[in-house]
Protein backbone atom coordinates (compact mmCIF):
# COMPACT_ATOMS: atom_id res chain seq x y z
CA UNK A 1 0.00 0.00 0.00
CA UNK A 2 1.23 3.40 -0.84
CA UNK A 3 -0.53 6.67 -1.32
CA UNK A 4 0.56 10.15 -2.24
CA UNK A 5 -1.38 13.33 -1.55
CA UNK A 6 0.82 16.02 -3.11
CA UNK A 7 0.82 19.41 -1.48
CA UNK A 8 1.04 22.77 -3.20
CA UNK A 9 4.17 23.17 -5.39
CA UNK A 10 4.96 19.43 -5.49
CA UNK A 11 6.13 17.83 -8.68
CA UNK A 12 9.78 16.84 -8.69
CA UNK A 13 10.06 13.07 -9.11
CA UNK A 14 6.36 12.47 -9.77
CA UNK A 15 7.04 11.08 -13.24
CA UNK A 16 9.06 8.30 -11.54
CA UNK A 17 6.64 7.67 -8.65
CA UNK A 18 6.42 5.16 -7.01
CA UNK A 19 9.74 3.65 -8.16
CA UNK A 20 11.70 6.74 -7.08
CA UNK A 21 10.93 6.11 -3.38
CA UNK A 22 11.78 2.41 -3.42
CA UNK A 23 15.25 0.93 -3.55
CA UNK A 24 18.43 2.24 -2.02
CA UNK A 25 18.96 5.93 -1.29
CA UNK A 26 21.38 7.86 -3.45
CA UNK A 27 22.82 10.27 -0.90
CA UNK A 28 25.48 12.80 -1.83
CA UNK A 29 27.01 13.32 1.60
CA UNK A 30 27.15 16.23 3.97
CA UNK A 31 27.31 19.19 1.60
CA UNK A 32 25.10 18.17 -1.33
CA UNK A 33 21.55 16.86 -1.31
CA UNK A 34 20.56 13.96 -3.54
CA UNK A 35 18.17 14.35 -6.46
CA UNK A 36 16.71 10.81 -6.57
CA UNK A 37 13.68 12.02 -4.60
CA UNK A 38 9.94 12.67 -4.63
CA UNK A 39 9.00 16.20 -3.53
CA UNK A 40 5.83 16.06 -1.43
CA UNK A 41 4.94 19.73 -1.77
CA UNK A 42 3.77 22.02 1.01
CA UNK A 43 1.91 19.91 3.58
CA UNK A 44 2.04 16.90 1.21
CA UNK A 45 1.56 13.41 2.65
CA UNK A 46 3.08 10.13 1.50
CA UNK A 47 2.38 6.63 2.82
CA UNK A 48 4.95 3.92 2.12
CA UNK A 49 4.32 0.19 2.41
CA UNK A 50 6.92 -2.56 2.37
CA UNK A 51 5.07 -5.42 0.72
CA UNK A 52 4.90 -8.22 3.25
CA UNK A 53 7.88 -6.91 5.23
CA UNK A 54 7.40 -5.58 8.74
CA UNK A 55 9.49 -3.14 10.78
CA UNK A 56 10.17 -4.72 14.17
CA UNK A 57 11.11 -3.02 17.42
CA UNK A 58 14.67 -4.23 17.98
CA UNK A 59 17.55 -2.71 19.92
CA UNK A 60 18.14 0.92 18.90
CA UNK A 61 17.28 2.22 15.42
CA UNK A 62 14.47 0.29 13.68
CA UNK A 63 14.21 2.27 10.43
CA UNK A 64 15.86 5.21 8.71
CA UNK A 65 14.19 7.93 6.62
CA UNK A 66 16.34 9.51 3.91
CA UNK A 67 15.60 13.00 2.60
CA UNK A 68 18.15 15.33 0.96
CA UNK A 69 19.36 17.91 3.51
CA UNK A 70 22.83 19.38 3.33
CA UNK A 71 25.20 21.44 5.46
CA UNK A 72 26.18 24.94 4.29
CA UNK A 73 27.51 28.24 5.58
CA UNK A 74 30.93 29.74 6.07
CA UNK A 75 31.52 27.55 9.10
CA UNK A 76 29.37 24.64 7.90
CA UNK A 77 27.06 25.49 10.75
CA UNK A 78 23.72 25.56 8.94
CA UNK A 79 21.58 22.76 7.56
CA UNK A 80 19.22 23.19 4.64
CA UNK A 81 16.32 20.94 5.56
CA UNK A 82 12.68 20.34 4.71
CA UNK A 83 11.22 18.54 7.68
CA UNK A 84 8.65 15.80 7.81
CA UNK A 85 6.52 14.33 10.57
CA UNK A 86 6.73 10.52 10.67
CA UNK A 87 3.92 8.15 11.65
CA UNK A 88 3.77 4.35 11.66
CA UNK A 89 0.96 1.82 11.36
CA UNK A 90 0.54 -1.93 11.43
CA UNK A 91 -2.72 -1.95 9.49
CA UNK A 92 -2.68 1.27 7.41
CA UNK A 93 -5.63 2.65 9.39
CA UNK A 94 -4.46 3.32 12.95
CA UNK A 95 -1.43 5.62 13.11
CA UNK A 96 1.07 6.49 15.84
CA UNK A 97 3.04 9.69 15.25
CA UNK A 98 6.58 10.38 16.43
CA UNK A 99 6.69 13.75 18.21
CA UNK A 100 8.34 16.23 15.83
CA UNK A 101 9.77 19.37 17.42
CA UNK A 102 10.50 21.26 14.20
CA UNK A 103 11.36 24.48 16.03
CA UNK A 104 14.22 22.97 18.07
CA UNK A 105 17.83 22.77 16.85
CA UNK A 106 18.33 20.06 15.83
CA UNK A 107 14.65 19.35 15.17
CA UNK A 108 13.95 16.40 17.46
CA UNK A 109 11.86 13.48 16.18
CA UNK A 110 11.50 14.87 12.65
CA UNK A 111 12.78 13.44 9.38
CA UNK A 112 14.70 15.52 6.85
CA UNK A 113 17.52 17.01 8.92
CA UNK A 114 20.46 14.59 8.84
CA UNK A 115 22.55 14.48 5.63
CA UNK A 116 22.48 11.19 3.69
CA UNK A 117 25.66 9.19 3.13
CA UNK A 118 24.00 5.91 2.12
CA UNK A 119 24.55 5.28 -1.57
CA UNK A 120 24.50 1.83 -3.17
CA UNK A 121 26.65 3.10 -6.04
CA UNK A 122 29.38 3.98 -3.50
CA UNK A 123 28.91 0.88 -1.34
CA UNK A 124 27.61 2.79 1.69
CA UNK A 125 24.86 0.73 3.32
CA UNK A 126 21.43 2.19 4.05
CA UNK A 127 20.93 -0.55 6.65
CA UNK A 128 23.85 0.41 8.89
CA UNK A 129 23.03 3.51 10.97
CA UNK A 130 26.72 3.86 11.87
CA UNK A 131 27.48 4.96 8.28
CA UNK A 132 24.15 5.66 6.52
CA UNK A 133 23.22 9.12 7.70
CA UNK A 134 19.53 9.95 7.44
CA UNK A 135 17.09 10.29 10.31
CA UNK A 136 16.75 7.40 12.76
CA UNK A 137 13.52 6.11 14.26
CA UNK A 138 13.03 3.62 17.11
CA UNK A 139 9.53 2.14 17.43
CA UNK A 140 10.07 1.83 21.18
CA UNK A 141 9.99 5.65 21.41
CA UNK A 142 6.27 5.61 20.54
CA UNK A 143 5.37 2.30 22.20
CA UNK A 144 4.94 0.32 18.97
CA UNK A 145 6.24 -3.25 18.58
CA UNK A 146 5.89 -3.50 14.78
CA UNK A 147 4.77 -1.50 11.75
CA UNK A 148 4.07 -2.28 8.11
CA UNK A 149 3.56 1.31 6.89
CA UNK A 150 5.33 4.65 7.31
CA UNK A 151 3.60 7.96 6.61
CA UNK A 152 5.50 11.21 6.14
CA UNK A 153 3.85 14.63 6.19
CA UNK A 154 5.67 17.84 5.24
CA UNK A 155 5.56 20.15 8.27
CA UNK A 156 7.34 23.28 7.09
CA UNK A 157 5.31 24.21 4.02
CA UNK A 158 8.30 25.88 2.37
CA UNK A 159 9.96 25.93 -1.02
CA UNK A 160 9.19 26.74 -4.63
CA UNK A 161 7.62 24.55 -7.30
CA UNK A 162 8.34 21.84 -8.26
CA UNK A 163 10.59 21.01 -5.29
CA UNK A 164 8.61 22.35 -2.33
CA UNK A 165 8.26 20.41 0.87
CA UNK A 166 9.82 17.22 2.16
CA UNK A 167 11.77 15.26 -0.48
CA UNK A 168 11.74 11.50 0.16
CA UNK A 169 14.66 9.49 -1.17
CA UNK A 170 14.01 6.17 0.63
CA UNK A 171 13.10 4.40 3.85
CA UNK A 172 15.33 1.55 5.07
CA UNK A 173 14.21 -1.08 7.56
CA UNK A 174 17.03 -1.92 10.00
CA UNK A 175 15.05 -4.52 12.00
CA UNK A 176 12.84 -6.39 9.54
CA UNK A 177 10.61 -9.42 9.55
CA UNK A 178 10.55 -10.78 6.04
CA UNK A 179 7.87 -13.34 5.08
Structure summarized in a few sentences:
With 179 residues, the protein is mostly beta strands.
In what order do the strands lie side by side in the largest sheet?
1-3-12-8-9
Apparent shape: globular
The CATH topology is what?
Jelly Rolls
**Spans with pLDDT under 50 lasting ≥5 residues?**
none
Report mean pLDDT, rounded to a whole number.
95
**The CATH class:** Mainly Beta
Beta-strand level of the residues, as a percent range? Answer: 25-35%
User: What is the SS-derived class?
Assistant: mainly beta
As a percent range, the share of helical residues equals under 10%
Gross CATH architecture: Sandwich
Number of helices: 1
Report Rg: 15 Å
The main pleated sheet reads as: 5 strands, antiparallel
Total count of domains: 1
- Taking the alpha carbons of the first and last residues, their distance comes to 16 Å
Along the chain, the helix and strand elements come as: EEEEEEEEEHEEEEEE
Number of strands: 15
Please describe the structure with a list of short key phrases separated by commas or semicolons.
179 residues, mainly beta, Jelly Rolls, five-stranded antiparallel sheet, three-stranded antiparallel sheet
Explain this structure to me?
The two termini are about 15 Å apart. The longest helix is centred in the last third of the chain and has 4 residues, at about 130. This protein has one helix at about 130, and strands at about 5, 40, 45-50, 55, 65, 70, 80, 85-90, 95, 135, 145, 150-155, 165-170, 170-175, 175. About 45% of the residues are buried. The radius of gyration is 15 Å and the shape is globular. It is mainly β. The protein has a single domain (about 5-175), classed as Jelly Rolls, CATH 2.60.120. The strands form 5 sheets. A 5-stranded antiparallel beta sheet has the order 1-3-12-8-9, with no helix packed on it. A 3-stranded antiparallel beta sheet has the order 11-4-15, with no helix packed on it. The chain has 1 helix and 15 strands, in the order βββββββββαββββββ.
Amino acid sequence: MESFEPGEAAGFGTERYPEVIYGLPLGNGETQGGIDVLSLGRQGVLTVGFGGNTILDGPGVDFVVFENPFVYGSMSDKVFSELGEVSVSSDGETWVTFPCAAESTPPLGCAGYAPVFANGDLGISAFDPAVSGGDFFDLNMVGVSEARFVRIRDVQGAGAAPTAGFDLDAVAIVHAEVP
